[in-house]
Design goal:
Elements: H1 2-23, H2 29-36, H3 47-51, H4 58-62, E1 76-81, E2 93-97
Antiparallel strand pairs: 1-2
């Protein structure tokens, strides 16, 4: 019984996070990605539905970071950057909101 409640709670949290990403007005990136992948429902109520959510690819992470923002551009207060990965030598830039 406890495991079932924990799974229900976890799925609810995942569903809320997924819904936030899909409905966010500041970025259509995730909405477009998930619709393209056929993940239409914003309600994640099973492990099977969760398994259909595609991960970000390396290429998607390296593209323009503004496309993935959940806050307006003017609310970005700092950026985190790396010198690049071993295999691509491309820097990774991550915006940080307030």
């Amino acid at each position: 019984m406890v495991e079932c409640l924990e799974m229900t709670s976890l799925l609810q949290k995942l569903s809320n996070t997924f819904d936030f990403a899909v409905r966010n007005k500041n970025s259509s990136f995730y909405r477009e990605k998930y619709v393209k992948a056929g993940v239409i429902s914003r309600r994640i109520d099973s492990i099977d539905k969760f398994a259909k959510i595609p991960f970000l690819t390396k290429e998607e992470i390296l593209i323009d970071p503004y496309r993935r923002l959940f806050v307006p551009h003017k609310e970005v207060i700092s950026w985190i950057a790396t010198s690049g990965t071993v295999s691509s030598n491309k820097p990774l830039v991550i915006p940080v909101g307030a």
